[in-house]
Amino acid sequence: MQPSRDISRLIEIMAALRNPDGGCPWDLEQDFRSIRHYTIEEAYEVADAIEREDFGDLREELGDLLLQPIYHAQMAKEAGHFDIGDVVLAITEKLIRRHPHVFGDVTADGASDAQDRWEAIKVAERAAKAERKGEAEPSILDDVPQVLPALARAEKLTKRAAKVGFDWPDLVSVRAKVVEELDEVVEAEASGNQAAVQEEIGDLLFAVANLARKAGVDPEAALRDANAKFTRRFHYVEARCREDGIEPASAGLQRLDGYWNEIRSRDKS
């Protein structure tokens, strides 16, 4: 078995790994549930490489991500559900169907019009899918994935609701809602009811996700950036502790905060 640029070789390798006669014992033990977290992790590693603009890593991480649908499709083939060809057929059908302005005789007046058309087709597809399954008329929120990170899912839920007019009229109104939710956190803390504190902090985070959407900001990306900034600044604090020959745990808040303000001021200059 030799490496190849042809995706068919990747499919062959995956089939060999899953072959009961001479395949990999670990790969043979896996099922859809046991590898699903790898699919999510690989997507995050792709996003990380993009954010770092490391295109060598991006090439590698895209390969790791590509392996995931091949892996799932191989297991589905073994179970008689579908194979990778069915997966490719489904996505090519979807892309052609959702781009009538490219593959049909419809015109799109810019990116916004194309996106609106895409969303309208998705709504029709959800209704048709529910009808085929004999289900009640679907909610506009039905296919927002449960497994999304909570902050990203909150943004998607509010975005979907906004499509039918359930939205704050402007950014000022959303900011007021954030302040209202923060006040309710304070009230819950004063009550001593921990369950109420958790509920109100959840409402506050949801309102902040909505604020980000209304401001045109991806809340998940914004929080990742904030995490990266905190990590970089705290590394500076640790380095300053080493320079002064003290352990961070015994430095005291005043000294640590002083180091923090050094890097914070440097960032702003």
From the structure above, extract its key features:
mainly alpha, Helix Hairpins, 75% helix, 4 domains
What would your notes on this structure say?
- The protein has 269 residues and is mostly helical.
- The chain has four domains: 7-97, Helix Hairpins (Orthogonal Bundle), CATH 1.10.287.1080; 100-132; 150-217, Helix Hairpins, CATH 1.10.287; 222-268, no CATH class.
- The chain has helices at 7-17, 25-29, 32-52, 55-78, 84-97, 100-103, 110-132, 150-162, 171-191, 194-214, 219-243, 248-251, 253-268.
- It is globular, with a radius of gyration of 25 Å.
- The N and C termini lie far apart (56 Å).
- Keywords: Hydrolase.
- One of its GO terms (molecular function) is ATP diphosphatase activity.
CATH topology of the largest domain: the name is Helix Hairpins
For the record, the CATH architecture of the largest domain stands as Orthogonal Bundle
Count of spatially separate domains: 4
Query: What is the H/E string?
Result: HHHHHHHHHHHHH
Tell me what portion of residues adopts beta-strand conformation.
Answer: under 5%
User: Under the CATH scheme, which class of the largest domain?
Assistant: Mainly Alpha
- How would you describe the shape? globular
**Biggest beta sheet attributes:** none
Which residues sit in consecutive blocks of at least 5 with pLDDT less than 50?
Answer: none
Number of strands: 0
